[in-house]
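Input structure tokens:
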């Protein structure tokens, strides 16, 4: 796959940064070939195939920095899921002030960190660390399970009261140990 690629690609003759990403995975995306176009930052655009079957064009910088991890399907799934469990009364607790600035996957809860995918979840304005994973889908899966645990705790918020944070912390710790 990689040997044929370089000769067929536009050379970085005009000073752009060119890195051969052919066949490399970035979250759900696999880099197929450069389009020949350059982004504003001088990096090349790559045609990518998403795990869902869609194709999309992403600049190499967005791929390498983990800013784009799917054709958009991942973000759509996450948003659809979050709507199903956030009840009106619990919204204030779940909603942290804003998506953290260091978020690099475009999805709250999973971000690029030291070459790996860091999963974390917030509850009552606190952040809970869920681990660092080499595989994006694994980090996303852990985050999904954490969200389910958080939803359970939210359902019992009237009885748990202030103890909810401790209960969630313990369940998240068990989740972390199980993966
Ligand atoms: Zn997709």
């Amino acid at each position: 796959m990689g040997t044929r690629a370089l000769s067929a690609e536009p050379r970085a003759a005009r000073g752009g940064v060119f890195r051969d990403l052919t066949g490399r995975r970035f979250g759900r995306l696999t880099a197929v070939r450069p389009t020949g176009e350059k982004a504003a930052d001088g990096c090349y655009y790559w045609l990518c195939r998403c795990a869902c079957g869609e194709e999309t064009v992403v600049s190499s910088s967005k791929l390498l920095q983990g800013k784009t991890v799917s054709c958009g399907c991942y973000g759509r799934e996450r948003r659809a899921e979050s709507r199903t469990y956030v009840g009106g009364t619990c919204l204030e607790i779940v909603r942290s002030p804003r998506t953290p600035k260091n978020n690099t996957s475009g999805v709250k809860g999973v971000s690029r960190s030291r070459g790996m995918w860091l999963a974390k979840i917030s509850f009552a304005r606190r952040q809970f660390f869920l681990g660092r994973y080499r595989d994006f889908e694994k980090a996303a899966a852990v985050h999904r399970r954490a969200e389910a645990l958080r939803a359970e705790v939210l359902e019992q918020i009237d009885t748990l009261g202030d103890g909810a944070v401790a209960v969630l912390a313990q369940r998240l710790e068990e989740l972390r140990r199980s993966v």
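Residues 11 and 152 are 54 Å apart (CA to CA). Residues 1-15, 84-101 have pLDDT under 50 and may be disordered.
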